Amino acid sequence: MAKPITDTLRLLQGGVFLDQCSDLFASIVRAVEETGKAGKLTITLDVKKVNAAVSVLAKVTDKTPEPAPDADLFYATVEGNLSLDNPNQRKLDLRVADSPPKQVRTVDPETGEIKTA
Fold first, then answer.
1. Exposure check for the chain: N or C terminus, fewer CB within 10 A?
2. Count of structural domains within the chain
3. Other C-beta atoms within 10 Å of 20: how many?
């Protein structure tokens, strides 16, 4: 019976190859969760005979989904310019409100009575 391929993968590059595959796979899974797009991990093992031995060249490649960049939204003006403000909407005259009164009130937790300090 053949031994599991994971045993052989652990031997490749002194164990570094399997660790690299694991790290890339975890990165792909996180990116798939974040973006909702598909990802792909490809492990390639090139095997050839070299005299009395067998050479194994291991490669791993990934296609990690990337998040789409956010688009900026602007309003077009009649002059053909872009503006952050909607030119068809009236401007509001907003101002900073006066500071609240300095009077501090507390509530007695037992009686519910409001006390002014």
1. N
2. 1
3. 15
